[in-house]
Amino acid sequence: MAETSTTSPAPSPPFRAVLTAHRSLGPGGFAILMAVLGAVSLVMGLAFLSMGAWPVMGFLGLDVLIVYIAFRLNYRSGRIYEVVEIGREDLQLLRVHPSGRRERFRLDTYWTRIMLDEQPDGRTALAVGARGEVIPFGGFLTDQERRDLASELRAALVAARGGPRI
Q1: CA pair distance 156, 40, nearest whole angstrom
Q2: What is the C-alpha separation between 90 and 112, in angstroms, rounded?
Q3: Residues 15, 85: contact at Cβ < 8 Å?
Q4: Which is nearest to 82 in space by CA: 95, 97, 101, 92?
Q5: What letter would DSSP give residue 62?
Q6: Beta strands per DSSP E along the chain
Q7: What are phi and psi of 131, to 5 degrees?
Q8: What residue spans define the domains of the chain?
Q9: Residue 53 scores a pLDDT above 60
Q10: Taking the CA of residue 23 as centre, how many other CA atoms within 13 Å lie in the half-sphere pointing to its CB?
Q11: How confident is the model at residue 115 (pLDDT cuts 50, 70, 90)?
């Protein structure tokens, strides 16, 4: 016999966007890159070792280590993400840092404004503001992604407020 629940699930917000940083080289590509770099450095190091220039092998190994560390730090910084939810009463922004630290902001939907600062050279900065509080977000997005997101957020705010007032 199937059980039925008398409680309905909480309504989902009218708008929800999860913003993540893009990384063009995936984990598989990173493994291949490191394997090729390591193999080339090993072959070159062995050639220099056979000529009696043994210190060069250590420097080639150091180069591989530095490239590995740089990529690992880059991937770590790419773990940041932000979640923007617009409901009937509020806009919530959740920012999760690479360390796992969370920041949560809540702004009243009626007072919230989406601010897109566009520079003459095409660069953009995106923020939400309400009652004197300004919260920048989406810094890891491209300029075009920020423009698109700003227009989507503005439309979602109008819808959450009950549509345009005539």
Answers
A1: 53
A2: 8
A3: yes
A4: 95
A5: H
A6: 15-20, 81-86, 90-96, 102-108, 113-118, 124-130, 133-137
A7: 50, 45
A8: 27-77, 81-160
A9: yes
A10: 18
A11: very high
Instruction: Provide the pLDDT for residue 5.
Output: 46
For 76, phi and psi rounded to 5 degrees? Answer: -60, -45
Closest Cα to residue 133, out of 106, 151, 152? 106
**Three-class DSSP category at 140:** coil
Q: What is the pLDDT of residue 26?
A: 86
The amino acid that residue 91 corresponds to is L
Residue given tokens 């920041």 in the structure block: 103
Mean pLDDT of 139-160: 93
Structure tokens at 29: 């590509």
Residue 45 near residue 114, CB atoms below 8 Å: no
User: Nearest 5°: phi and psi at 78?
Assistant: -75, -5
